[in-house]
Amino acid sequence: MPEGDSVWQTAHRLHTALAGRVLVRSDLRVPKLATVDLRGHAVESVRSRGKHLLTRFDHGWTLHSHLRMQGSWKVFETGQGWRGGPIHQIRAILANEAYAAVGYRLPVLELLRTADEARVVGHLGPDLLGEDWDPDEALRRLRRAPDRALGEALLDQANLAGIGNVYKSELCFLTGVTPWTPVGAVPDLPRLVGQAQRLLEFNRRKPVRITTGDTRPGRTLWVYGRDRHPCASCGTLIRSAGQGRPGEERITYWCPSCQAGPTP
């Protein structure tokens, strides 16, 4: 599942291409929206809310999409060939005279009134990249379950919206605790929350995600995706294991020397 900074980048690209322009083509290829025609309506804005995308139109309706693990939105100039996957994987086409936004493999696509957006995003915690960012509220939500493993709590979008598996692993490393450490045992939870927001803010306009400060290939992340590679800080081999409820485990990474706390 994409991180919040990647979804923000997608929203930014869509907003740049669509906002303020009237659609000349509308094709929503999911059964419940097959008869919907948005031609003649202008896109007012495209915004991300955590990992959700909200495309708002001038007639009071919002197209809500979520990428999950496999979805993507691509933007092409008029006349440019589409390169995002086979035609049968296209779920949405929104085009104006200058650009076409094409949604591939979108697992979530629905139309709702803009006034009812809370129905799909109201459960989310403060958005790390949103105007509503509130670190105190994020802390309050995290602390509601002090015995919960930190890695699971960070991935819970109802606590704070925007952290995915990459930032989960990286934040635990930077905090010096394993992802299985109970939230209540984290030494400085406010610092972790502040660092989460700064990392996503730092990376939201960058093509390559960086948490180490090192832009060289293979050195941009501390632990994520580096199983059995030496830790850049101490040289110990990075470990990995699944974390989460059965059937919903996500691979997480940690350094056995730099991070204290329980392990699988």
UniProtKB/TrEMBL annotation:
According to the UniProt entry, its GO molecular function terms are: class I DNA-(apurinic or apyrimidinic site) endonuclease activity; damaged DNA binding; oxidized pyrimidine nucleobase lesion DNA N-glycosylase activity; zinc ion binding
Q: Which keywords does this chain's UniProt record carry? A: DNA damage, DNA repair, DNA-binding, Glycosidase, Hydrolase, Lyase, Metal-binding, Multifunctional enzyme, Zinc, Zinc-finger
Which EC number applies?
A: 4.2.99.18
Q: Name one GO biological process term.
A: base-excision repair
Tell me where the transmembrane regions lie: none
Q: Short name of one Pfam family for this protein? A: Fapy_DNA_glyco
Record domain FPG-type: where: 222-260
Residues of the Formamidopyrimidine-DNA glycosylase catalytic domain: 2-121
- Domain of life from the UniProt record: Bacteria
Give yes or no: UniProt keyword DNA repair.
yes
Q: Which InterPro entries match?
A: FPG_cat (IPR012319), FPG_N (IPR035937), H2TH_FPG (IPR015886), Nei2_N (IPR044090), Ribosomal_uS13-like_H2TH (IPR010979), Znf_DNA_glyclase/AP_lyase (IPR000214)
Does the record carry Lipid metabolism as a key word? Answer: no
Q: Which family does it belong to?
A: Belongs to the FPG family.
**Protein's name according to its UniProt entry:** DNA-(apurinic or apyrimidinic site) lyase
